[in-house]
Structure formats: structure tokens, C-alpha cells
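Running this now, will post back.
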Amino acid sequence: MTLRSFAKINLAIHLLGKRADGYHEIVTLMETVDLADEVEVSAREQGTAITCSDPAVPTDGRNLVHRAAGLVRERCGLGDRGVRIHIEKRIPVAAGLAGGSGNAAMTLHGLNALWSLGLGEADLADLAAELGSDVPFCLHGGVAVASGRGEKVAWLDAPGSRHYVLVCPPLEVASGWAYSQWKMELTKDASCINLISSVMQAGDADRLASCLHNDLEPAVRAAHPEIDGARGLLADAGLKGMLMSGSGPTVFGLVPGRAEAERIAHDLRGRVEPSWRVFAVSSSSRRDVAV
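Update: finished.
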């Protein structure tokens, strides 16, 4: 079976402080967009065999998909039951778009079906929380506020569609490093999350651009001038609402419609080196993402 694994963007990230377990306490509003990998899951005699179209992606135990398969076997008492997983990669790696987390989430769905495990949503959410902070959200996608270290997810109804242009410079930003650079004095009041949640639920696209905020962005921009380069490209194209997604380096900008997003993305591709990746994307509903 083949499952689509959607990218996410963070429309707001607010950090509350460092936790005793080493993670940061956060509140973030996320949305899935229709840029997607494909995760193909099939049976084999034993063990986990992973292949990927992108040679930069590890296919051993470093891959979150590999860890997801091992966790399902362990929790369900399946011994070394075999699975073959192929990832057709379209989402840039280590780009702040939760590509790996989405792959792991779809692996949980795929193994639940392939092995006829009968796991419910709560069971899958528990497994997802063990794998990583974004994995519970990626199980279903849509629009949600996530809190804790990201594993507590509250879904929002956000009417209408939103359209974005994504610009991903050719660098990888380790999320652990980005969080370690955060300074409390640069953070914004938590009310930014409440405001953007209200705007999303009201379907007020005109106000959305003024609400975007990411506490991680100042430090990442200071260390990586490519972030400002991406923002400059979007600003030159006339976009006003811009933000770095997650720990970067992808920067997105709001666009009124999909046709305009496609036009801007096409123009930007002609202005940047091939190593810079540019996408026109639209919001993807929870229904579209769930298996």
C-alpha cells in the first residue's frame, strides 16, 4: 500500500522554557500543505528494509521510519515480523517541514493496516508521541495547536484554503541546535497563539499575515544569512506575510490564490540556483491526510 505523507508549516511557535527532560515546552500552530512524500509499505519475511529515492536520507536505525517499525513490533509482540518500506522523497530533508515525522506517522498507519493490528487512534497517538514531537500531529494533519513538547494536539476547524510559496535554501538546520540558541528575552507573548488560532478559525486570510511568529527564527537568521535571502526573494515578489517554518531553513509566504502561488514559484525558480527549492502549495485538510 502507498500512503501520502504531507509536509507541515508552523504559522506560530512560542517557547515557554526548558523542561526537566531536556525538551522545550512549546505552543505551536501547524498546518499541513499538499507537498507530499509517498510511503510504500509491503510485507517481507523478517526485519525492516528501507529504501529511499533521496540518497541523503539514511535507511538504517537513524531513520524515524525504521524506529517506528521497531516500536510497533515491540509494543504489539510481533517478534521480527518483516516489512519493506520505500520512501519517494519530495519534501526537502531537515527543512522545518516535518518530512521525517510525516514518514514515521504514515508508517504507523501502514503497519496497522498491513499487519491487521486493529490499533485505534489513541494507540497510534501513544506510539507517535514516543517517536517524536511532530509525529502525533502528522498522523492526521489539518490545522492544530500543539503543546507540551509538541505531542499534545488540539485540532482546529479552519474554513477556506490558504496558499503559500515555500523557499528552501540549500542547508540543513538541526532542530536541537536551533532550540539551544533560543533566548527568553527575544520571545513573544503567548497571546500570539490565541490570536492566530482565532484568525484561522474565522477564516480571516487578510489578517493572517500580521499574526505569523516564530521564536526560533531570530537566532537561525543570525547564523544563516540564507534565511534572509529567502525572505528577500519572497518580499521582492510582493509577499507580505512571511515566516521561517519550524527550525528552518524553509521560509514561506502567504499568497491570495493557488494560480498566483504557481506563477510566483515559477518566477523564483528562474532566479535561484538549482540547489534552492521553491514550491507552490495549498492547505491540506485533515481528511486528505488521514488513511
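The first strand starts at residue 2 and ends at 18. More later if anyone needs it.
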